[in-house]
Write a structure and sequence with these properties.
heterodimer, A: mainly alpha, two-stranded antiparallel sheet, 76% helix, B: 6-stranded mixed sheet, 3-stranded antiparallel sheet, 10 helices, 9 strands, disordered C terminus
Chain lengths: 360, 247
């Protein structure tokens, strides 16, 4: 693994994927909290025709040109979504779906058109569909790092305003902050986060890099700052693991591999994370149920004891099972704790400690 | 403040599409008054507050706060939205939400400092929530959520408070705490305008009342305008059901 990072190409790939993971993870936190996860999907699909048109207009495959085209198209896509919602009776989710498919369809048509042209210069644009980390060059990396860095810096600068936007926009408006402008700003940052990942992850799956790290991070913390930092970390992790795996393995597409890595992080988080984790909740549920069963058996024994004043008399597990069901395992556990003692083969009575516990 | 009324609304008309939500509403609230706004669902109560706060563009008319448009008087005004309007599963703490009340005076980019945190803790103290400052907001009861919102408005140190249904779905303890808070605010010369639903408690909690149903039916001191007749005009056929007990 160490000499993996001595490999110049691989290091470029890993660093580039880390940059896109950090940016999309951190900004995705806000998108997910605002229930706008699918906006990321619309933006990334809408970016495809932008890539094609930028290439057709300039004939250049420089990352800055293509990313700029993607950004313009992605941004137009979100404007189209807002426009459809505002002027028609079409709802938000339907508007997202329409814009996503129309822009993506247009992008596919243009891509096919470009590939059928006789000259060879077009090669490689189709990597924007499913992503290809192996082709990442130093200049790509620099473009990604600078754009991602700017987006993150802006996010940190207006952090408290974005928090207001995500939590309580009405209140923010009453304080005098221009909430619509902040909304546009956050969406623009999201567009940047998405377009810098398109070359590596591809338009089809890029939305997962916005949603998955943020969703996983939310499982681990109840602080917005920590959630964003963790999402950035998870995004970087998924990016590095996925891109290195795909670069080392032939015919393994980068985008899907990165997204599957992110999904693995989500799965682990859903199962294992602190108080929200499913595993922890199941364990706690079992512990609570067992504790309740023990208390029930103890209480039953106590009740029986009160009904039979001749004190040191035992009761069978069968009797106790009728009262609270499946009493034997609980009796054995209570015996181990010294709260119940065994008088005969199947005769159980409270110890002094058990009586005190039952009377509590 | 000068002699200007805390709120002066003239000929305010608001429409969503073609349907008028508020029609030609006049309203004047003197400083130091606790005023309830009552009316049936869809009467425009929230819209009235939102248009005074400049969040809704009126079709006609104007609203002044201490004699000037709201945009020039933000520092004097605090808004308490309905508690159901936000996602309480948001990853943040009680103290953090209250600190949002300082964002207005902080302006862009600047983060809250020690003085802001002290003010926030003081406000939490005032609503009996000091012990819960570090708690994640998803763990709060409805009453506690409402008190957090009130504390957030208190740290604004405003003169005029708009509250949208502050008593909605809160426990008895919180209800008493809010009533006490309203009285404290009044005794220090503050003005409160609250959308209110429980007609029974209007005379007990408030000095003045505005009865609203798209038009303004009546507005003034509770003993003068909170009558069976006006309630019937406001609520239509259901007036008897809503009438004051033993009035």
């Amino acid at each position: 693994m160490l000499d993996l990072f001595d490999d110049y190409t691989l290091r470029t790939v890993a660093l580039g994927s880390a940059a896109l993971g950090i940016t999309s993870g951190a900004l995705g936190t806000f998108a997910v909290l605002r229930r706008q996860s699918l906006l990321g999907d619309a933006i990334s699909h809408a970016a495809l025709p932008g890539v094609a048109i930028a290439f057709l207009l300039t004939g250049s495959k420089s990352p800055l040109v293509l990313v700029a085209g993607a950004a313009v198209a992605g941004f137009l896509g979100t404007l189209a979504v807002m426009g459809v919602v505002r002027t028609t009776r079409v709802k938000y989710d339907a508007a997202l779906g329409i814009v996503l498919s129309v822009f993506f369809g247009l992008g596919l048509v243009l891509l096919t058109f470009i590939q059928r042209r006789p000259d060879a210069s077009q090669a490689g644009l189709d990597r924007f569909l499913f992503g290809q980390a192996a082709g990442l060059l130093r200049r790509d990396l620099i473009t990604m790092a600078i754009l991602g860095g700017i987006a993150l810096a802006v996010m940190l600068l207006v952090w408290k305003e974005l928090k207001l936007l995500a939590f309580d926009p009405d209140y923010g408006a009453s304080l005098g902050f221009p909430m619509r402008a902040l909304d546009v700003l956050l969406t623009s940052l999201l567009v940047v986060a998405i377009v810098i990942g398109l070359q590596t992850v591809g338009v089809v799956l890029m939305a997962a890099m916005v949603i998955a790290p943020a969703a996983a991070a939310r499982q681990w913390t109840d602080r917005l700052g920590l959630a964003a930092a963790l999402a950035a970390l998870f995004g970087a992790l998924a990016g590095i693991v996925g891109s290195v795996l795909s670069a080392e393995t032939e015919r393994l597409p980068t985008g899907p591999t990165i997204v599957l890595s992110a999904t693995a992080i989500v799965l682990v988080s859903l199962l294992a994370a602190g108080k929200r984790g499913l595993l922890w909740r199941e364990l706690r549920g079992r512990r609570d149920r067992r504790r309740l069963r023990l208390a029930a058996v103890l209480a039953d024994l106590h009740a029986l004891e009160l009904q039979h004043p001749d004190a040191a008399r035992g009761h069978s597990a069968a009797v106790l099972s009728i009262m609270s069901g499946g009493a034997l395992p609980s009796l054995l556990e209570l015996e181990r704790r010294g709260e119940v003692r065994r008088l005969g083969e199947d005769e159980w009575a409270l110890t002094d400690a058990g009586r005190r516990e039952a009377e509590r | 403040m000068s002699a200007a009324p805390a709120i002066e609304v003239t000929d305010l008309t608001v429409a969503y599409g073609e349907k008028p939500v508020l029609w030609d509403v006049d309203l004047e609230v003197a400083p130091g008054v606790l005023m309830a706004i009552v009316g049936p669902n869809g009467a425009g109560k929230t819209t009235l507050i939102r248009s005074i706060l400049g969040m809704v563009e009126p079709a006609a008319g104007r609203a002044l706060v201490y004699g000037r448009p709201y945009a020039e008087q933000r520092r004097l005004v605090a808004y308490v939205p309905q508690r159901g309007s936000v996602d309480w599963d948001f990853p943040t703490s009680v103290l953090d939400v209250v600190l949002m009340g300082r964002y207005g005076r902080l302006g862009w980019v600047r983060r809250p400092g020690a003085a802001d945190r002290a003010a926030a803790r003081e406000a939490l103290e005032q609503v009996g929530m000091a012990a819960l400052a570090g708690r994640q907001i998803s763990q709060l009861s409805g009453g506690q959520q409402q008190r957090v919102f009130l504390a957030r408005a208190l740290v604004q140190h405003a003169d005029l408070y708009f509250m949208d249904e502050p008593f909605q779905g809160v426990d008895a303890t919180t209800e008493l705490a809010i009533v006490e808070l309203l009285r404290t605010l009044r005794s220090s010369g503050k003005t409160v305008v609250a959308v209110h639903h429980d007609l029974q408690t209007v005379p007990e909690y408030f000095d003045q009342v505005t009865l609203l149903n798209v038009r303004r039916i009546a507005s003034g001191p509770v003993d003068e305008v909170f009558t069976e007749e006006n309630l019937r005009l406001t609520y239509g056929g259901h007036a008897a059901f809503f009438g004051r007990n033993g009035a």
